[in-house]
Amino acid sequence: MAVNTRVRPAREQTGGPPLRRLGFLLVRRRKVVLALAAAVLVLAGALAAGAVPRLSLSRFEAPGSESDRAQAELAERFGTGSPDMVFLVTARSGTVDDPAVEAEGRELTARIAGWEGVAESASYWTRGGPATLRSEDGRHALIVVRIPGDAGHVRQEVLPALVPEITKGTRLLQVRAGGGEEVFRETVPLARQDFVRAELVIFPLAFVLLWFYQRRVMAALVPILAGVFAMVIGLGLLRGVLIFAEISTFALNLTLAMGLGLGIDSCLFVIQRFREETRRGADRAGAIATAVEHAGRTVLFSGLTVATSLAVLFALPFDFLRSFAYAGIAVVAGGLLAAVVVLPAVLASIGGTMVTKRDRPERDRPERDGPERDGHERAAGFWHALATRVMRRPLVFGGLATAVLLLLASPFLDLRFGVADDRVLPPEASSRQTQEVIRRTFPAEETDAIQIVSKDRAAGEATRYAETLSALPGVAQVDSAAGSYAGGRRVGDGDPERFRGRGAWLSVVPSAEALAGDPVRLVAAVRAVEPPFEVLVGGYPAELADYRSSVLDRLPLVLALMFGVTFAVLAGMTRSLVIPLKASLLNLLSLGVMFGALVWVFQEGHLSGLLGFTPTGSLDPSIPILMLCVAYGLSMDYEVFLLSRIKEEYDRTGDTGEAVAAGLQRGAPLITAAGGILALTFAAYATAQVAFVQMLGVGMAVAVLVDATVIRAVLVPSLMRLAGPLNWWPRRVSPKSPRDGVCA
After folding, report:
1. pLDDT confidence of 584, banded at 50, 70, 90?
2. Which of 178, 211, 240 is the last residue of a domain?
3. What does residue 481 show for φ and ψ, rounded to 5 degrees?
4. Is the peptide bond before 427 cis (omega within 30 degrees of 0)?
5. What CATH number has the domain bearing residue 109?
6. pLDDT-derived band of residue 14, with 50, 70 and 90 as boundaries?
7. Looking at the DSSP assignment, which residues form a beta bridge with residue 142?
8. Burial class of residue 457 (count of CB atoms within 10 Å of its CB; 0-12, 13-18, 19+)
9. N or C of the chain: less Cβ packing under 10 Å?
């Protein structure tokens, strides 16, 4: 007998819960819905095209911090500040002290100073030949440049014209560009290439995996199209956000990464329920309505958990991290629209092409498989047997799984937060090669000097203060109006013109070793020295230290909000307080494994040869905190998918053990398939050229795989069995649960 796919008359399609009525409405108005969806997609595409060029290039900075105020004082009172970039000048023959080389060096410095957008330009030759601006072998010298303005202005307007022109060099000088702004300017296009290249691999692989799981071309193609729909809608929504907020260009990468995965996950859940209802004998309209009623509700709750997990990033006062909250929420909204509104209309139009012979109603009728229970087919299969076996010995299986996960998470105990530098780029990147030469041949890092400015505009001489600072470990030299100091003694005359202004300021030049090791510790040591007057400590190392401190100081608030909000969402879905608590604990395990992998791979350097990155011995806090929110949301996403099936079975039978086994049988294959595809989506980024992108790919792939396999297949049934009737507290336990209890 053919699959029953006829649509019943409209008079049979009324009544029931709101989502069920919505399902019937979408069936009746499918042509209108699809037409509107196409129009929305076109409009969102136009908005998305306008949004991408407007994305900004955020810096790692903490507004209102001490370093931020120091920069403002330097600019206002002294007309100076920390250099934004550096040009490495190499003598084609001889040394940088040769008269002809010096003449061309001075001319090049003046040429840069006169460039539109450049506020300051100084060099080894114009500052009287300080050792900090000359390599130890005499072949290289530095030109330091300050370009005021936001990151977008510097990296998109000034540097694209300045760098190619200056790096042409001269007859006697070879010139290369470096410094923080140039590093991040080079990072952005490489990151975009990484994501585009990964997406080109992911799409065909996702299609193959979906076809293998669904066994129908359209059933494999529609979820991918839903992912594209979510991406476009998400980017279109960001165009509206750009009216009142800045969004980092890296948010585009998150939109691409999450859009496909979430779109596929949500649509798979709805399609799976549609096929189940078809097997039970429902006509197409009834199957769609039931899918929207049950799977649609689950998708809405899961989307809400992901969105709320990302929304906690708004608690951090950093545009860079807030950008990911905007992007994540926007793409979740696009995915929900695709799965709950557009997909049912698609199923009403072409649903018959998404079912297979296995979906024939006769397969699950009483005469084929034995008596049904309460109108539902008997659950049986690998996952049902696995859940039953685990629940017979929950302490054994749960204990072993927990021990394995804790072992995998153990490297997390050695986590060290540091700061990002040029080594996030591949070795062949131009700016990284420049920085490698500076690290290898220069005694200090003039471009990354710590700037100290007095709060008092009438502050006097600070000779003793400069001497004390110059004696600190990791300080190569201290420059001031009174002179230059190294090792606690005067080594050169002052430069009154450079330090002219209202008050006093000093430039503390760190050694290359100090910056390569722990620049944050050096900043703390500088701030610990008692000054002769009130000061503000700024400069690039201080900016990184303040940014890291601000992020870590707010981490407890982020965690509390994330756990609290998602706990409330899951409690609303299950009407239980115990289940959300267990879900949070299980998610912590998967997050622990993810951070253990990040530390083992990217901090300690294991697999660095295979993946092609350079370990620095620490992790920048920004990306891990972003991954924390994304991974927690996705883990709770799968928790919602599985618990919705378990709760549905429990509401029907009142038997927790059977509800878990049946729910796992019906939900685990889908969760495993969806998790595998999502893990593949992220794992493709492990081949990226930028270490940030690799971290995102490896960490998220590990978190998703662990969550979709060990946690859902072993720990969930173990804990559900151990808790027994308490799972549903404070709900009253159903009288149909004689087998609830604990097995040792």
Report:
1. confident
2. 178
3. -65, -30
4. no
5. 3.30.70.1320
6. low
7. 88
8. exposed
9. N
Question: Using an 8 Å Cβ cutoff, are 176 and 430 in contact?
Answer: yes
CATH number at residue 398: 1.20.1640.10
The answer on 464 and 597 residing in a single domain is no
Q: What is the mean pLDDT of residues 441-457?
A: 84
Handedness of CA 310, 313, 315, 319 (dihedral sign): negative
Phi, psi (5° rounding) for residue 619? -125, 135
Same structural domain, 453 and 482: yes
3-state secondary structure of 404: helix
**pLDDT digits 0-9 by tens, 126-160:** 988 888 899 999 999 999 999 988 777 888 888 99
Reading across the β-sheet that carries 140-146, which strands appear in turn?
120-123, 140-146, 85-91, 173-178
Q: How far is CA 184 from CA 329, 381, 431, in A?
A: 26, 52, 9
Does residue 127 form part of some domain? yes
Q: Are 301 and 569 in contact (CB under 8 A)?
A: yes
pTM equals: 0.82
- Average pLDDT, integer, range 419-445: 87
Instruction: Name the strand (E) or helix (H) holding 145.
Output: strand 140-146
What is the span of the domain harbouring residue 515?
Answer: 434-546
The pLDDT value recorded for residue 367 is 46
Structure token digits, residue 163: 């760098």
Helix, strand, or coil here: 489?
Answer: strand
Report the C-alpha gap between 147 and 70 in whole angstroms.
17
Establish if 251 belongs to a structural domain.
Answer: yes
Is the domain of 317 the same as that of 401?
yes
- pLDDT at 733 > cutoff 80: no
What is the total count of domains within the chain?
3
Specify whether the CB–CB gap between 577 and 571 falls below 8 A.
yes
* Best CA proximity match to 188, nearest among 253, 107, 284, 114: 253
Give residue 376's pLDDT. 44
CB contact at 8 A, 451 and 503: no
| pLDDT(742) > 60 | no
Based on the domain organization, do 252 and 316 belong to the same domain? yes
Q: What is the pLDDT of residues 317-350, one digit of tens each?
A: 788 888 888 988 999 999 999 999 999 999 999 8
3-state secondary structure of 465: helix
Q: What is the 3-state secondary structure (H, E, C) of 30-43?
A: HHHHHHHHHHHHHH
Q: Which residue has the tokens 């969105």?
A: 307
Give the distance, in angstroms, between the CA of residue 567 and the centroid of all CA atoms in the same chain: 22
Q: What is the mean pLDDT of the chain?
A: 84
pLDDT confidence tier of residue 709, bands split at 50, 70 and 90: confident
Please give the Cα distance from 673 to 406 (Å, whole number).
Answer: 25
Q: Which residues contact 368 (CB under 8 A, 6 or more apart)?
A: 362
Please check whether residue 595 is in contact with residue 415, taking contact to mean a CB–CB distance below 8 angstroms: yes
- The first and second tokens of residue 379, run together, are 């659950």
The rounded distance, in Å, linking the Cα atoms of 593 and 699 is 9
Residue 193 and residue 284 share a domain: yes
Tokens 């220069």 correspond to 442
Mean pLDDT for 718-729 is 86
Same domain, 561 and 535: no
Check whether residue 405 and residue 446 sit in a common domain. Answer: no
| Within a domain: 602 | yes
* For range 676-681, the mean pLDDT: 83
DSSP 280-298: TT--HHHHHHHHIIIIIHH
* Secondary structure (DSSP) of 179-203: SHHHHHHHHHHHHHHHHHHHHHHHH
